[in-house]
Specification:
Structural class: mainly alpha
Number of strands: 4
Strand order of the largest sheet: 2-1-3-4
Strand content: under 5%
Number of helices: 24
Largest sheet: 4 strands, mixed
Shape: globular
Distance between the termini: 23 Å
């Protein structure tokens, strides 16, 4: 690796770390930001606005891809990915300095939401710009390895955000953190922004882009070419369903999904769950770079397809073993205690509610949601139209009335389901506990899940760059990637929650990532070309 190549990778990676550190911070601080900036509303409305701000940031990402993709294809790679890091960093600093709603009223949440939208629009162009810039600087035979550092930087941004928040909380008491300490992680992005800008200022434009421009091959209308020609639309669909969708869902499984599974479904305490997931994620950073490097030897396609195939075959089994290890009493109860929801199907909703604005109040909806919160596995029994909803546990039937929630919790506990704090649940009190037998097995399984995501993400970062012609590359690659990340992966939490409620067990939602991985496997086998040896400047 030459000095210039090393500088390109470091500058691109540091900027990517900053962008995703800032993006993940909002999720880590969502609860307290909701209190500070939506404090004039009651708890329900406050929660809705906090959730909406998260999902707005996800939903706008494909639109940001179009804006920055066109800019990068017309003006240049360097100006685009320099501007995105400035906007992301500035948006975070604005929130860190912003007076709360009790000081400036309705202006506070408006500025917060506006900053979040700007941040998300900029991030939509940042990843594509960094990946393309590195790829167009990489020598033949090393492009996968070099570009693989960019998705690895996303994971580092997540780890950095979690670390800074946890360190800040450990140094302050709860009152101090809620009063002013929450601003520290937001303002801490300033030094990282300065370093990133200094590194990127010293970079030159992509030689491949300059060559294309000098030869007069630059597109005058990259949006029209990318979205108006079937050949390019076809490549975009292959990129979306053959790589990007699997990257989004399998990446989420190894981070956010597994964290929610441990804490919400298996009732593992937050400290233990975070320690387990962070440990596995650290290993995953190295895995991303390794699989990207390996793809320079054997090709992008074989590794991507292998990751998807293993995920399809093994995901359900891995999660069942995790449940048995982390909460054996719950696993035993789910397998031995018969529970059913007996209802007229017409009264049961599919409880997809990403913004938190919907209210599901029918007896069937209440029964299913309550059982799901208690991690109870149940069967759905259809009754004739107009029949009242009941829940059967063993031989006892409970009607859904005003006292239903308390009666159900007591009956479920009496039947043998463990509650939060049960001594059989895996619990860690320090980092050293990771070396205990059961914890070590759980970490091993989490590492497998993380690496499955990296088997796809590492090679796909270079693969999606190589798939498109240079004149429309920024536009054409950014759109499918951001549709997958913002919509397919971004809405995964809300969709999987609704699937678990509808299916009656906490494993049912795994069919969501498995379906996209299976789709990528089919599309990859039939349509995805091998791009490792392509001349991406041609």
């Amino acid at each position: 690796m030459t000095r210039d190549e090393r500088r390109v990778i470091i500058a691109s990676s540091v900027g990517t770390i900053l962008e995703w550190y800032d993006f993940f911070l909002y999720g880590a601080l969502a609860m307290i930001l909701g209190i500070k900036f939506f404090g004039q509303f009651d708890d329900t409305i406050r929660s809705i606005f906090a959730q909406l701000t998260i999902y707005v940031g996800l939903l706008v990402r494909p639109f940001g891809a179009l804006v920055w993709g066109r800019f990068g294809d017309l003006v240049g790679r360097k100006p685009a990915f320099f501007a995105t890091v400035v906007i992301v960093g500035a948006s975070t600093l604005i929130v860190g300095l912003l007076p709360t709603s009790d000081k400036i009223g309705i202006a506070a949440p408006i500025i917060l939401v506006g900053s979040r939208i700007l941040q998300s629009l900029a991030i939509s162009g940042g990843f594509g710009g960094a990946a393309i810039y590195v790829a167009e600087h990489a020598p033949p035979g090393r492009r996968g390895f070099y570009v693989g550092c960019i998705p690895a930087s996303i994971t580092l941004g997540l780890l950095l955000a979690l670390a800074v928040v946890m360190i800040t909380q450990s140094m302050l008491d709860d009152t101090q953190f809620r009063l002013w300490g929450w601003r520290i992680p937001l303002l801490a992005s300033a030094p990282l922004l300065v370093v990133s800008l200094l590194l990127r200022l010293g970079l030159e434009e992509s030689p491949a882009f300059l060559k294309m421009k000098a030869e007069g091959r630059q597109s005058r209308a990259p949006l029209r070419e990318a979205l108006g020609r079937w050949s390019n639309i076809r490549l975009g669909l292959i990129a979306l369903f053959g790589m990007s969708a699997a990257t989004a869902v399998l990446g989420s499984v190894g981070t956010f999904y597994i964290l929610a599974f441990l804490t919400i479904s298996l009732k593992v305490d937050s400290y233990s769950a975070n320690l387990l997931v962070v440990t596995a994620t650290i290993v995953g950073v190295a895995g991303c770079v390794f699989f990207a490097w390996w793809s320079d030897r054997v090709g992008r396609k074989p590794i991507i397809l292998a990751g998807c195939a293993i995920a399809v075959v093994a995901s359900l089994s891995i999660f069942h073993i995790l449940a048995e290890l982390a909460n054996p009493a719950l696993d035993h109860a789910q397998r031995t205690i018969s529970v059913s929801v007996n209802a007229d199907p017409a009264t049961c909703s599919f409880q997809f509610n990403p913004a938190g604005t919907a209210r599901f109040t029918s007896p069937c909806d209440v029964a299913k949601a309550t059982l799901t919160r208690l991690s109870v596995t149940y069967a759905n029994v259809s009754l004739p139209a107009g029949a009242p909803t009941t829940v059967t546990i063993g031989q006892e039937t409970i009607s859904v009335d005003s006292a239903f929630t308390n009666k159900l919790a007591a009956r479920v506990k009496a039947a043998g389901y463990p509650t939060v704090g049960d001594p059989s649940i895996l619990r860690l009190s320090s980092v050293g506990d990771l070396l205990q037998g059961r914890a070590l097995q759980v970490v091993g399984l989490l590492v497998v899940l993380v690496l499955l995501g990296q088997m796809v993400q590492g090679p796909a970062a270079a693969g999606i760059v190589e798939l498109f012609p240079i004149s429309i590359r920024y536009t054409a690659m950014s759109l499918p990637y951001q549709i997958a990340a913002g919509w397919i992966g971004g809405l995964m939490s809300a969709m999987t929650s609704a699937m678990n409620i509808a299916g009656g067990n906490m494993f049912f939602s795994l069919w969501y990532p498995v379906a996209f991985a299976a789709g990528a496997l089919v599309v990859g086998l039939l349509l995805l070309p091998e791009t490792r040896d392509r001349d991406i400047a041609a």
